[in-house]
Amino acid sequence: FQGHLRCVRQRCAGAPVWGFGDVGSLATWPSPCVNGLHGESCEVSCASGYMRDPSVASYMCEAGEWTAPSTSPCVESSCAKAPVVSNAAALQACANRPHGYECPVRCNPGYTQL
Length: 114
Hints:
The chain is rod-shaped and about 90 Å long. By secondary structure, it is mostly beta strands. The model has no long low-confidence stretch (mean pLDDT about 85). The strands form three sheets. A three-stranded antiparallel β-sheet has the order 1-3-4, with no helix packed on it. Helices cover about 0% and strands about 15% of the residues.
């Protein structure tokens, strides 16, 4: 070997495989998630309407293979506060609803919805 032998970290080929169906699925993987090195983690960016669940582990490059968390790292976002619409009935029932929920708006007498 004449002094030129060395050991290097294995590389995980390509990007991890998303195994959670359409739940928060990604359009593309962030660049650190492509061809990562052994010991590196891959922090996903969740699709619109989803947010990262901090309690779920990241994808990890281990011995040349990506390991996935046991549950989706992305959970559906929710709207914590009720929207405020001028000249309309209170919308408190719309608080903590999931992303995409359509809140029914009732205008006060004498007003119409645009």
